[in-house]
Design a protein that fits this description.
The structure holds two protein chains of two kinds. Chain A is an alpha+beta fold. Chain A is 26% helix and 29% strand. The longest helix of chain A has 25 residues, at 679-703. In chain A, strand 24 and strand 25 (433-434) form a beta hairpin. Among the domains of chain A are: 45-166 and 175-204, Immunoglobulin-like, CATH 2.60.40; 429-540, no CATH class; 549-678, Immunoglobulin-like, CATH 2.60.40. In chain A, the strands form nine sheets. Chain A has an eight-stranded mixed beta sheet, with helices on one face. A five-stranded mixed beta sheet of chain A has the order 19-20-21-23-22. Chain B is mostly helical. Chain B has one domain (11-43, 58-281). Chain B has eight helices and no strands. In chain B, helix 4 packs across helix 5, helix 5 (113-158) packs antiparallel against helix 6 and helix 7 (201-241) runs antiparallel to helix 8. Chain B is globular. The chains are: A alpha+beta, B mainly alpha. The interface between A and B is large, with 67 and 69 residues.
Chain lengths: 704, 290
């Protein structure tokens, strides 16, 4: 017997209100090329899905389209010859994914017909669009249409499919009765006018790319399961006798749909209230910064849903606080969050699905032992929510230009985290226990760590690169996330807070619900800043070169009072044993001139291959022992430059780029000179190392 | 005799021959300094003139990380150097243990550095051989560990929450430590027998196993009790570390002193373990001989 929680009339009324609401938000009312209607049942005992799908795909291009390319992502987990499995096998450094026997996942289309019943399955073929081609990969299916679709024409595909959930998959998976289901349904790629289908295989290092669509999804699960999904829950129907519940979710204008089910979830809800979370002063300051009115940037209320594992329920407040901070700052900086709900999932244990983004849904992940100073899960929540802006709304191609979402979002996460929480301690553990219980760890900002850890990979790959073409997972991650974020931080410092805030907001607003590319970003930067910064992108984003300016050598010496040698004029008149003094000027009394003169020579070097563009200069600030300072500028074009200073005192310190504009410098430790360096800190570091080694040797000798 | 007597005896022997720990400390700190010297050189070369104002662009620890990453190319050659030194340290450890046991078990004699070295030379080959014979015992050790940790692995693998995984991990660590202490007890006793009874290695192993038939549990219990005391004192010493900041010279000096006190304490604890085992063995041996 079915029990409906919502009456039909109520649902219709709600849908109408929702459509009305959505239609007044810019971007949400525009025509979408895809509409999905999905019905899926989860069979936990076999870890499988039984599903029906209707895709209505409209040709919005001016091309005649002869076929449709569908992603069948779960076939990446089907065998050891899939592109994903092969790439995972080659990656020796980070074992991000290892497929195991009896844990295969797959998706099988059992029926594929058009609305008028034509069977398209016999003519469908698996293709391998990427280089090098992999004939064994079955993650992209080419479906030939009965006749090419004319511009504006739509095709209706009815698909029945079965799927086996991969155990311990990548971003999706199950463990016992906890499921996280993503990339689970046949999904068209993006049709690009004049270029055809953009539909890549499932790669180890790549994420996703899809068209904006409207989704309606019915999910049937055993009744003791708690469900969370993208979009809004519209209806819940219980089949008492079968012990099942069907949830209906709907959401317009998103480009993916994920869901989760587990009996161990606790579902909590709270509201983000724009009026309460943001003060008037904050609104005013932001409005001033981006050149809008307070009314323009007001943030709407958002329903926050948290699905948290019972073991972590005491951390609910930390989750909501982080989400609130993210909704607030992303909303203020880039524009209001346009959807009504955001679902935050503490993913089922061991499903390999933590720290991932989906439109209106994010997965975080936490631990039962959590320290106050460690900003986890906070930073994960902020980051994954941020992807609703950079990937969700500004839907760049994660396969081909992952930096556009990951880099920009890592930069944004770091800023939100710094504002909301300050510096945090790294989350390091040994046998499940926090390492900070044993050793003192410093509190660091994300951007500080990001620039250092990404420095070693700058010469491996450029930031702008197809995800599967990076040297390895490490290079992909560090370049796309951290090197890109560091470069953006540098741009921000070069352009100033105000210009940069306008650049970012303009880019976001201009490309909301669109698929921009790197060139679009560069164009916005140049237009809003009114500068041609193409060189910056050419060097730091398209090139794999390093940028490292340094103070290489500092020498301070007493200037001699006399110089030995022969000093004569043009007529050849000499003064016998000649000398030139640094003594008093003619007429100056000799006894008053007793001050010594020090000559300080500072040699700067360019160790990196990248040099500053014409018109830019590096500042050198020198402080002397009497407190006086001097500044010089270097255009950085040559490999080195030497500056001389003559002062009655010695140098105290010198700093190259004292304002810290060029964070993208791969080694900032060589950018300064202090006559009295950090001797205590060096001794402390060395002492710690010696002590660790002593302990190791004592242990070692005890064993032998 | 009571457990307290053996523990007291162990401590007394360690304290009365404290200078042995100082010899070991001296040798170990020299080797540690040699191992750390190349890293220390890099740190000094790169950072000795670093300007570190109050509001630095990044904390000093990140400067350290930065220069390590910037000098990655040196890491592979350093790794080779490290392995060579470690191998040498392994052999040296056998030598030092031979010296330590020799001096610890020499009744009445006041230890001297010369005697320590000469004992090291005298017993070195025997100690090395006892270690080589111990290697097959390690197979039994790993087998036992695998067997005992199997239910923990199963518990952990089936867990749907994190706690069982953490507990299983900790319990595995505990099983490992307990097993290791039992095996180490055996090796130490073999060496005691080799020195005090001038037995050959295999004969000493048989004597030790024979002795364990009747006395293993009590001796192991004493060993663990002493281990517990050592752990407690270690925790206190490490907690004291938290009182000082390494940024200030005075704090740094205190940290260095505390750190070295901890190393000395660990060496002294090693002496106490040997003293305890020797004292227990001597008493039981005497009573059985009587």
């Amino acid at each position: 017997m079915k029990r409906k929680n919502w009456s039909k009339a109520g649902v219709k009324y709600f849908l109408f209100l929702m459509i009305l609401f959505l239609s007044v938000i810019p971007g949400l009312a525009q025509e979408r090329p895809v509409h999905y209607n999905l019905e899926v049942e989860l069979l936990p005992e076999t870890a499988s899905l039984q599903a029906k799908e209707t895709i209505v795909w409209t040709n919005l291009s001016r091309d005649y389209v002869p076929d449709i390319h569908l992603h069948l992502y779960w076939n990446a987990f089907k065998n050891e010859l899939s592109t994903l499995a092969k790439e995972a096998g080659q990656d020796k450094i980070l074992k991000r994914f290892r497929i195991k026997k009896d844990e295969w996942g797959w998706i099988k289309i059992t029926s594929l017909t058009t609305a008028d019943g034509q069977d398209l399955l016999p003519a469908a073929v698996f293709i391998s669009p990427d280089q090098p081609p992999n004939p064994h990969d079955q993650t992209v299916l080419r479906v030939v249409l009965p006749q090419p679709l004319a511009p504006g024409q739509a095709v209706n595909l009815n698909i029945d499919f079965q799927a086996r959930v991969p155990k311990n998959g990548l971003r999706t998976g199950y463990f016992r009765n906890g499921f996280f289901i993503s990339q689970w349904f046949p999904k068209p790629g993006v049709y690009e006018e004049g270029r055809g289908w953009n539909c890549h295989e499932y790669h180890l290092n790549s994420e996703f790319y899809a068209d904006f669509a409207d989704f309606q999804v019915k999910i049937t699960v055993p009744k003791d399961f708690v469900v969370g999904a993208c979009g809004q829950e519209m209806e819940r129907t219980e089949e008492q006798t079968a012990g099942k519940v069907t949830y209906t979710y709907a959401q317009e204008n998103i480009h993916d749909f994920a869901w989760t089910a587990s009996p161990r979830f606790i579902k909590l809800e709270r509201w983000f209230k724009g009026e309460e979370e943001v003060t008037l002063q904050e609104y005013q300051e932001m409005a001033e910064l981006v050149g809008l009115t307070v009314q323009d940037i007001k943030l709407p209320d958002v329903r926050m849903i948290l699905l948290i594992e019972k073991q972590h329920k005491n951390q609910a407040d930390r989750h909501f606080q982080a989400l609130k901070a993210a909704i607030k700052y992303y909303g203020l900086w880039y524009g209001p969050y346009p959807y009504q709900t955001i679902t935050m999932v503490d993913p089922p244990f061991r499903t390999g699905s933590g720290g991932m983004e989906y439109p209106t849904l994010l997965t975080a992940g936490t631990s039962v032992i959590l320290e106050k100073e460690v900003l986890s899960p906070e930073q994960v929540i902020i980051h994954e929510f941020g992807h609703n802006y950079w990937y969700g709304l500004v839907a760049s191609n994660e396969f081909e230009e992952a930096w556009l979402d990951e880099g920009i979002n890592t930069y944004s996460t770091s800023k939100v985290s710094a504002l909301a929480y300050g510096a945090g301690k790294p989350s390091l553990k040994a046998i499940g226990l926090p390492l900070s219980w044993m050793i003192k760890l410093p509190a660091v900002y994300d951007w500080q760590l990001a620039r250092i850890i990404s420095a070693p990979v700058v010469k491996l790959d450029p930031i702008v690169n197809a995800s599967w073409k990076f040297y390895n997972s490490g290079s992909y991650g560090l370049n796309v996330y951290h090197r890109a974020a560091t470069s953006l931080y540098t741009l921000e410092r070069l352009l100033g807070e105000k210009t940069w805030a306008r650049v970012m907001r303009t880019y976001h607003q201009k490309y909301r619900f669109q698929h921009p590319r790197t060139e679009d970003f560069i164009r916005v930067v140049n237009e809003v800043s009114d500068q041609d910064l193409s060189w910056f992108f050419q060097e730091f984003f398209y090139g794999a070169k390093d940028f490292d300016y340094a103070i290489s050598y500092v020498e301070t010496r007493l200037k001699p009072e006399k110089y030995q040698g022969i000093f004569d004029d043009l007529s050849g008149r000499t003064s016998g044993q000649a000398s030139e003094t640094t003594g008093p000027a003619p007429g100056q009394k000799k006894d008053k001139f007793k001050a010594k003169i020090y000559e300080t020579i500072i040699t700067l070097r360019r160790y990196g291959e990248i040099k500053l563009a014409p018109g830019y200069a590096l500042k050198l600030q020198v402080e002397f022992e009497d407190g006086s300072t001097e500044e010089r500028e270097w255009d950085g074009q040559n490999r080195w430059m030497r500056f001389n200073f003559e002062k009655p005192v010695k140098i105290k310190r010198a700093v190259l780029d004292p304002e810290g504009l060029w964070l993208v410098d791969t080694n900032l430790s060589n950018n300064s000179y202090a006559r009295k360096g950090p001797a205590t800190r060096i001794l402390s570091a060395t002492g710690s190392l010696v002590w660790l080694m002593q302990n190791l040797l004592v242990t070692f000798s005890g064993w032998l | 005799m009571s457990s307290g007597h053996y523990l007291k005896s162990g401590f007394n022997q360690a304290i009365s021959k404290l200078r042995l720990s100082i010899y070991l400390w001296l040798i170990i700190i020299i080797i540690s300094l040699i191992i750390i010297a190349p890293i220390s050189f890099q740190i000094r070369t790169n950072l000795r003139h670093l300007d570190l104002p109050q509001k630095a662009l990044m904390p000093f620890e990140l400067n350290l990380l930065e220069i390590i990453l910037a000098n990655q190319s040196l890491l592979s050659s350093y790794a080779v150097f490290f392995m060579v030194i470690l191998l040498f340290s392994g052999l040296l450890s056998v030598f030092l243990n031979a010296g330590l046991f020799g001096q610890m078990l020499s009744q009445g004699k006041r230890p001297s550095f010369q005697n320590f070295l000469s004992d090291g030379c005298r017993h070195f080959w025997q100690f090395l051989l006892s270690l080589i014979v111990f290697i097959p015992c390690l197979l039994i050790f790993f087998l036992l560990f695998k067997l005992l940790s199997a239910p923990l692995n199963l518990w952990s693998a089936r867990a749907v929450t994190e706690w069982p995984v953490i507990f299983a991990g900790l319990l595995r660590g505990l099983v490992l430590a307990l097993l290791w202490s039992a095996f180490k007890l055996c090796l130490d006793l073999v060496r005691i027998i080799m020195i005090t009874e001038s037995k050959k290695v295999i004969a000493a192993y048989f004597s030790a196993l024979n002795f364990f038939k009747r006395h293993f549990l009590r001796l192991w219990g004493l060993y663990l009790l002493l281990g517990l005391v050592v752990i407690l004192i270690s925790v206190i010493l490490l907690l004291l570390n938290k009182l000082f900041s390494s940024v200030q010279p005075v704090g740094l000096l205190m940290l260095i002193l505390l750190g070295q006190a901890f190393i000395l304490f660990r060496l002294l604890a090693r002496q106490a373990f040997i003293g305890l085992e020797f004292s227990y063995y001597s008493v039981k041996k005497e009573s059985s001989d009587d």
